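Re: weekly structure request thread

Next one in the queue (65 aa):
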Amino acid sequence: MRVRDELKMTISAYQTLYQSSETFAMRKQIQAEQGKSELENKIKDLEKQRDVLQEKVSNSCSRCA
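Done, posted below.
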């Protein structure tokens, strides 16, 4: 009986550990997806700034020539 009870407790502990690891993995995946979209937005903003600066450089060079 003790062996059976010990086995049930061990199985229960493993089930709890598995469930908590699934929850942790889902949270990390959601965080990664949110971070990815934020980085994509930042890339778009930086590309716009780059385009504006390149246009300024072109305008400055055309005035000098």
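The helical segments are 2-64. DSSP finds one helix and no strands in the chain.
Next request, please.
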